[in-house]
Write a structure and sequence with these properties.
With 140 residues, this protein is an alpha+beta fold. The protein folds into two domains: 82 residues, Winged helix-like DNA-binding domain superfamily/Winged helix DNA-binding domain (Arc Repressor Mutant, subunit A); 42 residues, Dna Ligase, domain 1 (2-Layer Sandwich). Helices cover 42% and strands 16% of the residues. The chain has five helices and five strands. The longest helix has 15 residues. The structure holds zinc ion (2 copies). The site of one zinc ion has 6 residues, from loops.
Length: 140
């Protein structure tokens, strides 16, 4: 099963378990988030989902965040994006250009190992977020 479908099904299950009724606007937000390979802002979600309405989009994002299905990503400045949290724990981190706001995802096994070493030193880690800031090739 692709991660995209896996996440959508996981989302449907958590929503049902939480006793929330199925809503078409929320379902459209879920489908859009499922297709993304990286973070997308609330404004981008709103723009992509014509006819849903901004308040509804924001409420849906908030619910998905509360359910632990998406997490907020710091995109530098005061910008935030949202991206799905895979049930497998598979994830990536971000490099942000502080000039133009471009965001590049990256994965680094050595970094993950280092983070899990901290775990072994007796601090119970739940989640982690790593965002690197700098200037992209176009801006530097
Ligand atoms: Zn991302
Ligand atoms: Zn990580």
């Amino acid at each position: 099963m692709s991660e995209e479908n896996e996440w959508s099904e996981y989302a449907a299950r958590l929503i049902a378990d939480a006793g929330l009724r199925r809503s078409t606007p929320r379902q459209r937000v879920i489908e859009l988030l499922a297709e993304q390979s990286c973070a997308i802002t609330a404004l981008q979600i709103d723009a992509a989902l014509d006819g849903v309405g901004r308040a509804t989009v924001y409420r849906a994002i908030e619910q998905l965040e509360e359910l632990g299905l998406v997490h907020k990503v710091d995109l530098g400045g005061s910008a935030f994006g949202y991206e799905k949290l895979e049930p497998s724990g598979h994830h990536h981190h971000h490099i942000v250009c502080d000039d133009c706001g471009k965001v590049e995802p990256f994965e680094d096994e050595a970094l993950e190992d280092a983070i899990h070493d901290i775990h072994r030193k007796g601090f119970k880690l739940e989640t982690h977020e790593v965002t690197l800031h700098g200037h992209c090739a176009d801006c530097s």
